[in-house]
Structure formats: structure tokens, C-alpha cells
Amino acid sequence: MSLPFHTFIFELYDSIEGLSPYYFYSRFKASPFEVSSYIVEGIQQKILVFDNALYKISLTQLGRKKALNMYYEKVRDNRCGREIQIPELFKTKALDINVPYSTTDINELTIKSKERTSTEEASRFRFRVKAE
Taking a C-beta distance cutoff of 8 angstroms, is the pair 57, 12 a contact? Predict the structure, then answer.
């Protein structure tokens, strides 16, 4: 599916008077089946209201609370993911409060970085020598 459910809910949360189903097709290129399945799922969970007269979808109070919960879960997951993606080369000990940053830490980091790049370059640029 091209449109995740949480994006569907976040867009409805940002809207003031609700959105038409066509909005999701034009903005996210979501198929009509996808949009209608999200509408049915939201109505069953009692987080969406579909107004037939205005042809708009809007969130209920429960839906607004659920959207906030989904947002904070997503933010928390992203924070954890960012910490994991830091390469080991750049991870150092944490500084204590009110302790100046020493230049030895910087020098150790630069030495590690130079050692790593020199070994990578050596393995990358090996030449074959013909046996004579």
C-alpha cells in the first residue's frame, strides 16, 4: 500500500473541517480501495466519522487521542533508531557535567579514523603483480 495508516490519521488530525477521500488520491496517489478500506477500518474502530452531506472524513475525539498516541510512539521509535545507527567509530565515552572537553579525546578519534581509512584504502587499491 502506498499510504500508511498513520499518515492517513495524521493528515486528518491536521485538518480542521475534515478531508475528502479525493484528497488522499491526489496528494498520495492512494488507490480508492486503499482509502475506502482505511475509512471502513476507522469507522469500525470509532475513530472516524464520514459526513455524507459534505463528503468529508473527520476524526472523533477518540481518533484525535489515538492520533496523538500514534505520533508519540513514532517519535519515540525514531529516537531509538537514531541511536542505533551511529557507527562504532564515532561512539566515545560520555562527558561528565561541567568537565571541559579534552583534546586527547579528539586526537584518539582522529587516529582511529585515519587507521580505518588507511586499511580500507589498502584493501580497496590492491594491484596484482605479475610473477616473472
Answer: yes
CA dist 38 and 11 (Å) reads 13
Distance CA 35, CA 131 (A): 68
Q: How many domains, the chain? A: 2
Distance CA 39, CA 50 (A): 8
Let me know whether 69 and 9 are in one domain: yes
Q: Where are the beta strands (DSSP E) in 44-92?
A: 48-51, 56-59
For residue range 10-34, list pLDDT tens digits in order.
999 999 889 999 999 899 888 999 9
d(CA 13, CA 104): 50
pTM over 0.85: no
- State the helix-helix crossing angle for 5-14 and 21-28, rounded to 10 degrees: 120
- SS3 (DSSP) at 94: coil
Domain extent for 97: 88-124
